[in-house]
Amino acid sequence: MAIKGVNLPRFQGGAMLVEVLIASVLGLTVIGMIVGIFLSGYRIASNRTLELLTLQNLTITTQMMRSDIQRAGYSGGLGHSLTLLDESEIIAVSGSSIGFVYFDPHSALFQHVKYKLLGNQLYTCEKKSAAIQSFSSLSRCHHLFDQNMLVVPSFAVSTVPLSSSSAQSAMIHFYLEAELRDGRFNHSVSMSVKQRNWQ
After folding, report:
1. What is the pTM of this model?
2. Under DSSP, is residue 57 helix (H, G, I), strand (E, B) or coil?
3. CA 191 to CA 175: how far, in whole Å?
4. pLDDT at 104
5. Which of 105, 165, 177, 189 could covalently link to 154 via disulfide, CB atoms 3.0 to 4.6 Å apart?
6. Distance set, CA 165 to CA 45, 90, 109, 158 (Å)
7. What is the C-alpha to C-alpha distance for residues 199 and 167, in angstroms, rounded to an integer?
8. d(CA 83, CA 134)
9. For the segment 63-122, what is each residue's pLDDT rounded down to a tens digit?
């Protein structure tokens, strides 16, 4: 009995090539989708990190300012509250600047502090000395924010006198606004701090 040979269809090789091409296209599409999802997630995470950076800088700065303002005028038991040289108020305000002095018991020196807005940056100017200095003499300053990343569009300070029959104090209101250099993630903080040391 004779066995007939089987002839494979001539188009089978071409069909396999088409299947390989389809599989390759599908594979590349899936890889592209995965990369797209990864990049999207990375952008979201990166943006979230930058927003948190802005908020964290605002929070840390306002907490530091609150702490300093509450020390303003402390004299270490001298019997009277301290003011900067030639100033009548414990907390001196001039435009977008605020300054004060307090006695630092650890160094036994007078700690001078000034916050000021210059351009679009917020600076702190500090000086320790054995004698009380003037508001204008506090000129050695440094940035409170990373100037390569953040700017400060606004910093405003105002005071409201608080009086009793025997003493005077003040409520200090300040507004601080910060954002990335490209204008994204603008956030602001408003805070009121009561001056602890009375005149």
Report:
1. 0.75
2. helix
3. 7
4. 93
5. 177
6. 56, 18, 32, 23
7. 5
8. 9
9. 999 999 999 999 887 778 899 998 889 999 988 999 999 999 999 999 999 999 999 999
Q: Pseudo-torsion of CA 120, 149, 138, 82, nearest 10°?
A: 100
What CA–CA distance (Å, rounded) separates 45 from 51? 10
Place of tokens 């003493």: 167
Query: Token pair of 17, please?
Result: 């090539």
For 136, the token pair is 């204008």
CA distance linking residue 48 with residue 80, whole number of Å: 48
Would strands 150-163 and 141-143 be described as parallel, antiparallel, or unpaired? unpaired
- On the 0-12 / 13-18 / 19+ scale of CB atoms within 10 A, 137 is middle
**Which two structure tokens, joined as six digits, stand for 21?**
């091409």
